[in-house]
Specification:
Organism: Salix udensis
Mean pLDDT: 80
Radius of gyration: 30 Å
Protein name: Alpha-(1,6)-fucosyltransferase
GO molecular function: alpha-(1->6)-fucosyltransferase activity
Number of strands: 12
């Protein structure tokens, strides 16, 4: 802030104080009483006239004047309250408020009660998918067929079915049907004949098809991302898992006290690197964070509760069979995490299968006002980005449902207003069970759920992280957000993730930003992350960070702290998700660079 702005604010404070002093003087009070008496008499006169018809001057109707358009802001509320509480019986007060609400609704084109009803209907549908039937429909007098499509919600069951096809070998092919048309288009009755489609797919595979979970071109991602993802999938999905030449690495997730989700993911990235280097198929076993009642049946205690498994079920079954075979263990056909040192897991050799693509990383990360051109751990940054993208390539129905609940809680009412604007004013009366058109069903089926764009994601890491990195206050993060906004002035929305309640409280001071965040209990005061997570319980302490993680990867911009493993991994997901050129503004650097 410059000196001229400071002087301006000081002048405003002085004028405000003078105004208060003048307002408390006796002559001024007499004037105010006289003024209020005049207002009362005038209002009675206007009431008498408007009882005969609409009263206006120059084509301006008083019933159309809205306090929302008035230059009076919250500082004038005392004045308004004084007027309405005067001794004169201003009985048109209620009518004026009704007209104000009516005017506001006509401007927005929606009814606040209908917005709440539609939002509640979407919430009820989500509750049913998670908790079973609800009593909402009877109490609201609403049928499910009258609920319009929710553009911010994903059809999770359908998405999982589509992705399952994209994660399995096609018949007599090395790769899944990655070359089919997107979404449900290849299921359209008029789509390409099966024989022609097989020929087209075979040609594309022979020329090199790339996985569908990568968004954007090579220039919009880390170097060789599409090829690396294709090769990792092939490595993890041999055509015959029982081939005697196939070897395995079976590893459970780290569960030492104090290990957060970020550390667990970084450790598994290291194990995947070992598996690639040793030409082994990585098979993950017990995942303590999925050991809760939200993960049902065989998905309990498994990574595949949240994301698709790292290899096929056939390979998993065979690997666990070999774990019970003493000879297989002795001959090294199957190894475990205990076969490797901590140094090999955490700082081991990055796979060189693709050469050294990290030497060509585009400098798009800024720290302290300068772009980071190179550092000592560029190979690890590239590899972890590839590994985390592969491990999180497809969400399960459970994870998809968690994202739906989070988006609905954050954006649901905003979306309801937009949807109702496009519908008839008679909704829900004239909204029957309308069949989806072909373009909705087949072409638009691949659209990502709506979020307010442009969206900035911000992860503020404080608390006990001070022992590992330089901790920066929330104001430091917001200065970086303001810098992005200077270049992109239409940016106004922030998805805020943090474990500190202090940060949430401070966000309310930034009135020119719209903040969204998950509704979860946060830390107050000094507390270790392990203690905090224990207070939330395993289910909540796993679900909400993963929601924040995926929201950060979807956002248009990101501000974080590269000294945090969590932010480091978010950066990796974004740089393999078509977001390289969005850049990354960090409040600090990784401690190993």
């Amino acid at each position: 802030m410059n000196m001229e702005a400071l002087n301006q604010k000081s002048l405003e404070r002085v004028l405000s104080q003078k105004a208060l002093q003048i307002g408390s003087s006796f002559p001024c009070q007499i004037c105010v009483v006289g003024f209020l008496s005049g207002v009362c008499l005038t209002s009675l006169f206007l009431a008498a006239l408007t009882s005969l018809g609409t009263f206006g001057f120059g084509g301006i109707s008083f019933s159309a004047i809205s306090l929302g358009n008035s230059p009076l802001n919250s500082s004038s509320s005392g004045f308004i309250n004084t007027v309405t509480s005067a001794d004169c019986k201003f009985k048109r007060k209620e009518i004026s408020r009704e007209r104000w609400v009516g005017s506001r609704r006509s401007e927005n084109g929606v009814d606040d009660e209908k917005v709440s009803l539609l939002f509640s209907a979407w919430s009820a549908l989500l509750s049913e998918s998670v908790d079973g039937e609800t009593a909402f429909w009877e109490s609201a007098g609403l049928s499910k067929s009258a609920v319009p499509n929710a553009p911010h919600l994903e059809r999770c069951e359908l998405s999982e079915q589509i992705n399952e096809r994209l994660d399995k070998h096609s018949k007599n092919e090395r790769l899944p049907p990655w070359t089919t048309w997107k979404g449900l288009l290849n299921t359209h009755p008029a789509s390409m004949p099966a024989e022609q489609l097989r020929y087209f797919r075979h040609q594309a595979i022979s020329e090199g098809a790339y996985p569908p979970w990568i968004t954007g071109s090579d220039e919009e991602n880390y170097p060789l991302t599409r090829k690396a993802q294709r090769d990792i999938w092939l490595h993890q999905h041999p055509e015959n898992c029982r081939d005697p030449n196939i070897r395995f690495l079976v590893a459970e997730w780290e569960r030492l006290p104090g290990f957060g989700i970020g550390a667990q993911l970084a450790g598994m990235c290291g194990l995947l690197a070992i598996a690639v280097n040793e030409k082994r198929v990585l098979v993950t076993s017990y995942y303590n964070r999925a050991d809760h009642d939200g993960c049902k049946g065989s998905l309990r205690s498994s990574w595949s509760c949240y994301f698709f498994p790292e290899t096929s079920q056939e390979c998993r079954d065979h690997a666990f069979e070999l774990m019970g075979n003493k000879e297989a263990l002795e001959r090294g056909i199957v190894t475990t995490k205990d076969n490797y040192t901590s140094k090999e897991i955490w700082t081991g050799r990055t796979p060189r299968v693709w050469g050294e693509p990290w030497r060509f990383l585009q400098p798009t990360t800024e720290i302290n006002g300068s772009l980071v051109v190179s550092h000592r751990k560029m190979d690890r940054r590239w590899w972890r980005a590839q590994a985390i993208r592969y491990l999180m390539r497809f969400q399960t129905q459970y994870m998809c449902g968690l994202m739906n609940v989070a988006r609905n809680a954050a954006f649901g009412k905003e979306v309801a207003k937009m949807v109702l604007t496009s519908l008839s004013n008679e909704w829900p009366k004239d909204f029957g069970n309308k069949r989806r058109s072909d373009i909705e069903e087949f072409v638009w089926s691949n659209n990502r759920p709506w979020i307010p764009r442009p969206l900035l994601s911000m992860h503020v890491r404080m608390g006990d992280k001070a022992c590992e990195m330089k901790v920066v206050e929330f104001e430091g993060y917001m200065r970086l957000a303001d810098r992005i906004r200077q270049r992109f002035p239409h940016l106004k929305s922030i998805w805020l993730s943090t474990e500190m309640q202090e940060v949430i409280n401070n966000s309310k001071l930034y009135m020119n930003w719209d903040f969204y965040y998950t509704n979860v209990t946060r830390q107050v005061g000094n507390m270790t992350m392990a203690t905090y997570e224990a207070s939330l319980g395993r289910k909540t302490s796993t679900n909400y960070p993963l929601v924040n993680f995926l929201m950060a990867t979807e956002a248009d911009f990101f501000v974080g702290a590269l000294g945090s493993t969590w932010c480091f991994l978010i950066d990796g997901m974004r740089n393999t998700g078509g977001k390289v050129m969005a850049g990354y503004l960090s409040v600090n650097k990784d401690r190993f660079w």
